Amino acid sequence: MYPTIFYDIIRLFNNIEIIKLNVMELLYIYIWDDKRNIKECEYNFSPNYKFSYRPQLKTFDMEKCNSLYSGWFGQNIVNITAVVGKNGSGKTNLLDCIIKALCGQGGGFIFYKHNDRIYSNIPKQLSDYKFTFEVIQFERFGSPLNSYFKEHINDAFVIFYSPSIDRNLSNRNSHYSKFEDISNSHVLRQPLSRLTQEPEYARMSEVDIMQTNDLFRLLLLFIYSHEQKQHTVFETIKLPDNFELKLLYFSDIEPQHPTYKSLVQNLSKKGFKNRLKKFILTQIFLSNQHFPEEWDDKTTFEDVLLYLNKGEDYRPNIFDTLCILYDSGDIKYTEKRLSGLRKGYHEFSCSIRVKSITQAFITALYCYYNYIPMAVPYASFGTMEQNVSNAQIVINLGISSGERAIYTFVSRLMGVIFNKQGEIHNAVINKIIFNKEFDGKTIIILLDEPDLQLHPEWQQKFISLLLDLLYAYFPKVKFQIILTTHSPILLSDIPRKNVIFINKNPDGKSVVCSDLNLKETFAANIHTLYNNSFFLDGVPIGEFAKHKIEEIYDRIESGQIDNNTLYDIYRIGEPILRNILLQKYDSKRKTLPNEERVFLLKEELAKLEKNK
Predict the structure, then answer these.
(1) pLDDT in tens, 393-435
(2) Could you point out which of 49, 440, 452, 511 has its C-alpha 20 to 30 Å from the C-alpha of 147?
């Protein structure tokens, strides 16, 4: 019998062998001119290969390094590369060029590995380019992922994410092969024609559209996370226990439709179900929709609910769904009298347990959103004219903007991989594991500063969370991740050989730095990373603090010291800087008259006693 460790090693090598098969990995890009700030720069994305270009000879060289074994980041993670450097050094532009080279035309010359063979997008017709290694070239220019080409790679695609909205990287006129953009900038720049394909709530502003779609993705993410109890991915970031659902309307108008008057005539104003029914009816009949001509005082509430679901009786409706949750104890409801609000404001609110959310709830809520034009998660009554009928649904998840940012990223990423336009519930775990549609797929994920809006604690968990999530839900998909970051916390999860360091010349042009003189980044102290990896001069503290320290030093040097000087020195948190200034302070104090020296010594003694 072999010890257990030998079986673990065998399983590890089996997993490594699986990773080698049918995997695409981007290895290198040479950008001759991006028309912005990158010119004649080359970037290596794999620690196991080093490509270089000799412009005079138009020759590409390649050297194998074998610095990092397969599966080091995880069983289905091909590689992770971090791009760091000064602000404005071209990190985002680099991602843009990668997208163009992989998914469009132009961008730069790339080399990538597929099925253990090296490919390039440099076409055979450019015969003046030479290679000192074996490489497979395409017959013509274009995306290697374009299915119209005979040599295309049909089992890979690219995903891009950025939490910013000021990027020109993604726009509504971009047409790329096998490319999905889940960035804020792209979501906000959808073609106007998309609005005709969206439900009624999409007639709101583009920001409201994005937030509403993200809201449904988040709710679906909650469903998927708690349905798969065997996975502990979301223990890293705690999901909310409850969320608040509000039905609102602001109106001085009482609906006069005979169906409405008949259904609310004898309806009690107390109790969860009675008040819910009244609110639903009021919102419907204040929404100024065209109701069926046959509706009269004999029309039932069930007829109205069926109308909301477009006559499809198999769909759950919002009233029955919420009542079921209430009866099961998954809804907390307290009748409260609103005060201090403007006349005409009406609200129905309840707290719903997140773990009770089901597909029936999502479908019912979606149908209701689809019907009420003003149903958006974030709209202000300040934008609504008085005496105009308005209905609104508000969902408050009770999470911070940082929490929402990471939930949004995860839900968008999962939705686009499942290829269900965010409806992640349609791809249950068994489908991913057993459906051969996902066999051998490679997804290259490009992340542009994903750490924005994240608390340092979550920056610390981000890489681990992402890797765990990708393996838990997509074990048969292989991933390559390339990310830009300003966070030394994120960078401490990446080995130096997997980091591209970018600086910029005095003329603003991007330049790739050799890592020979740079210290190891993996598990490094963040203070070291600040100085070493982000090209900050001096101590990594705020500019104001630097000026203040210089001011204290100048005061001491000129002999203008008093008890405030000592307090300013002890205010400095960095012990090395504080001790240097104290030594300077002691030296200068000895030159003062005895009376001043005694006074200052007493002040310092009091300070030391206080801090003891």
Answers:
(1) 777 777 777 777 888 888 888 877 766 433 344 444 334 444 4
(2) 49
Q: Which helix (H) or strand (E) holds 518?
A: none
* Strands of 171-324, DSSP E: 179-181, 242-250
Q: In what order do the strands lie in the sheet with 331-332?
A: 331-332, 345-353, 242-250, 391-396
Other beta carbons within 10 angstroms of residue 110's beta carbon come to 24
pLDDT value, residue 270: 87
CB neighbours of 84 closer than 8 A, spacing ≥ 6? 91, 484, 485, 486, 491, 499, 500, 501, 502, 533, 534
Burial label, 153 (beta-carbon count in 10 A; 0-12, 13-18, 19+)? buried
- 501, pLDDT greater than 70: yes
Residue 542 corresponds to which tokens in the numbers above?
Answer: 């705020």
Q: Please, where are the H alpha helices in 372-451?
A: 401-418, 429-434
pLDDT(542) > 70: no
Between CA 246 and CA 269 the distance in angstroms is 17
Q: Which two tokens stand for residue 558?
A: 């000129």
More confident site: 603 or 52: 52
More confident residue, 456 or 479: 479
Q: What is the band of 284 on the pLDDT scale with cuts at 50, 70, 90? A: confident
Q: What is the pTM of this model?
A: 0.76
Q: Are 384 and 250 in contact (CB under 8 A)?
A: yes
Distance (Å, rounded) from C-alpha 80 to C-alpha 500? 11
Give the count of beta carbons closer than 10 Å to the beta carbon of residue 393.
22
Strands 77-85 and 477-484, how do they pair? parallel
Q: Residue 156: helix, strand or coil by DSSP?
A: strand
Spell out a b/e string for 370-387, using b for 16 or more CB atoms within 10 Å of the CB, else e: bbbbbbbbebeeeeeeee
Tell me the CB-side half-sphere exposure of residue 53, using CA atoms within 13 A.
17
HSE (CB half, 13 Å, CA atoms) of 457? 5
Give the chain's radius of gyration (CA, Å). 31
Give yes or no for a contact between 445 and 413, defined as CB atoms under 8 angstroms apart.
yes
What's the half-sphere exposure (Cβ side, CA atoms, 13 Å) at 178? 23
pLDDT score recorded for residue 515: 62
Q: Report the distance separating Cα 24 and Cα 133, nearest Å.
A: 18
Residue 46: which of 107, 122, 110, 131 has the closest Cα?
Answer: 110
Does the pLDDT at position 152 exceed 90?
no
* pLDDT the model gives residue 276: 93
The helix/strand/coil state of 505 is coil
CB distance 115 to 104 below 8 Å: no
**Measured between alpha carbons, how far is 118 from 61 in angstroms, rounded to an integer?**
12
C-alpha angle with apex 21: 20 to 23, nearest 5 degrees? 80
Helix (H) or strand (E) run with residue 536 in it: none
